[in-house]
Predict the 3D structure of the following.
Amino acid sequence: MKRTKRYIFNKETLNYDVVKSPSEFWLYTKSVLPFVLVGVAMFVLMLFVGDKYDIKNPKSYMIDKRSKEWRSKMEIVVRRMDNVRGQLHAMEMRDNNLYRLIFGMEPISSDVREAGYGGVDRYSYLTATDPFGKVTSMVIESDVLTKKAYLQSKSFDQITLFSDRAEEMVSCVPNIPPVKFENVRHTSGFGMRRDPVTKARMRHHNGVDLAPRFGQVGEPVYVTGDGVVTAVSFQMGGFGNYVTVDHGFGYVTRYAHLRKANVAVGQKLKRGQQIGEMGNTGRSTGTHLHYEVIYMGKPVNPLNYYDKDLAAEDFNSIIDSPEIPLS
């Protein structure tokens, strides 16, 4: 488009001079500059006001909104996990202090229940996206609760098995003394003691020792619950002549330092049946019976299973039972 020339009278020269027209760049700049200035002013105002009154731009607002939503969801999950943890703890307490006690089962130790789960590397994949560790801690807690729930489930399965066979279990659990108490004395208990032979170092004694009151050999030894003989053997530097009986339900008993055994491997026994005679064989310092109760592969205190104050007539009624041993 052709521009129209403009003139202005010059009083000094008395001539008309051509008025210079502004360049296109200047005209463009002049038209755009107000908008630029307004934009800069708005930006500065947003920075000042936003910082002072916590006003966010749309993108920051959406990010903050999603962040709050996720924090809210995480808080709900944490509350639910706290509730699950409380219920699981209540079940563990009932399991240890009621159910397992009723059936004579050893409680599950806190070391087993609280055992760690996995390792540091197991959760390394969360490190990059969880700088504060909150998600990682929730995942770990979830895994721990899952492990505890599985352990508790297995314990209840075990208790269910015991309850279904409760009547059979009553006669299998080793719950009577292995000897007539009026004829013996208690010489050593379960737990740490000084070695009776060397007198040198402390060792764990896995059973109890019962010796005849007058030192005589041949005091009868009785099986303490229904079961099957799994071992009749001799150990020179240890148990001497000994018998091992598997009672089922996780229970095993051992009768050691016998003068002789009168049962055979594979023989089925009834509680109160004589299995041998007290002696002084193996690593022994005198005539006595070493008696052990093993539950789930772990030695436990026999005193927790039989009553030392059992009346003589009640004990005699058990061992003199006319029932014929199974074979």
Remarks:
- The longest strand covers residues 251-261.
- Confidence is low (pLDDT under 50) at residues 322-327.
- Residues 239 and 256 are 5 Å apart (CA to CA).
- The first helix runs from residue 24 to 53.
